[in-house]
């Protein structure tokens, strides 16, 4: 909150206290030297400036929260996509069957296709660590 040159760091409360003391001095000076209407105008401007700064800070915080939420959603989507990409075909079949997307006959047919593909790959001497299936 304070200076970066080794000086004292001020808390937000201290900064506002200093600001209001200085504002009071300005208002009193305006009352004494310029009259009550000028003091009232300066007071209104000071209050308006505080409200404006508060509004802009809240708006900035809201934008930052939205950015963080969007980033979290993207990270979650990326992690989910990576997890789905890392699951083997048999697990994917099992999940689809459990979710009701496949009938038992479709599940068995596709599982047989995976087993056959694995056996053909073994015969061709191709590495298939994702499809390490054996007929039982």
From TrEMBL:
Superkingdom of origin organism: Archaea
Residue ranges, compositional bias (Basic and acidic residues): 61-76
Keywords: Membrane, Transmembrane, Transmembrane helix
Record's protein name: SHOCT domain-containing protein
All residue ranges annotated as the SHOCT domain in the record: 88-114
Compositional bias per record (Low complexity), positions renumbered to this chain: 77-92
Transmembrane region(s): 12-32, 38-57
Source organism: Natrialba chahannaoensis JCM 10990
Region of interest (Disordered), residue spans: 61-95
Keyword check for Chaperone: no
Pfam families: SHOCT
